[in-house]
Amino acid sequence: MTVTFRDSDGYRESIQRGLTAVRSFRGGISFGQGSRDERIARLREELEAADAVVVGAGAGLSTAAGLTYSGERFERHFADFAARFGIRDMYSGGFYPFPDDEIRWAWWARHIYYNRYIDAPRPVYQDLRALLQSRDFFVVTTNVDHQFQRAGFEKKRLFYTQGDYGLFQSVDSRNQRTYDNEEWVMRAMEAQGFVRDEGGIFQIPQSGVAMRIPSDLIPTCPDDGSAVTMNLRADESFVEDAGWRRASAAYSDFIRRHERLRTLYLEIGVGANTPVIIKYPFWALVNANPRATYACLNYDEAFCPQQIEDRSICIDGDAGDVLQALA
Prior knowledge:
The protein is built from twelve helices and 13 strands. It is α/β, with parallel strands linked by helices. It has two domains: 10-64 and 121-153 and 242-326, 3-Layer(aba) Sandwich (Rossmann fold); 72-119 and 182-218, no CATH class. The chain has a six-stranded parallel sheet with strand order 4-3-2-10-11-13, sandwiched between helices. A three-stranded antiparallel sheet has the order 6-5-9, with helices on one face. Strand 10 (263-268), helix 11 (279-288) and strand 11 form a beta-alpha-beta unit.
């Protein structure tokens, strides 16, 4: 069956499914049944038996892989920004009102580079790929760091709902294209004074780095010279380009083809910020299909509705540790 953009939109279908689920689950929540070892063993069995696996990944998966936005990693790469502006983590720095574009884009070059163009410190994504390699699966994620593809996942099995750190878009809403930013990021890192180590990773030399880029390096739209911004979903100006729409349609098609089969909906690291995109829709899909199972791997947030407790596996803890235990 051929799926066209007009026929299916997995993103909005999921949101509608999630909103409906919120109204239907009224019996309270459950934190799962059985010991931790029993839950891991049961999840391993479900992975083996499932006709298909739908992975829903949130920020907790990248955190487990070592892509933390605060602490030592932030201090190592952004100590100068922390000292001058009082910024305490990468997330809040993305909203800081920097005094000029030269400084703002110096910040974003670093932010993009260290969260998009290097591998995560821990091989958590590779461990997940190894568990899925012989399965029929699809991944939907709110992460924007591209780590699935860096770990070898096929692009056709991925749907990045909220954008990609590797893409710019024009501030002109009439322009619905996105633009690869890798070449610009590398030039902007070099312009600040970063140098590559033996492994090809940019590091701060003993002489330090600048906290700005030259004015002629401020990125602009290659089509019309307009200003650009990140292709990250913040409001209705987010560009859903042709690649995004293909992935959304592919996700919708995968859900439709497997919604009555023995399907494992494996949620990893999804927090409370965007539950309507992954968590609530997964609950609804499992509730509607008696052959489906819901699994939740999360640190301090592993739970499910009581209505699907008997077909849910909730494992509290570091997702990386759980994936290694499953292997």
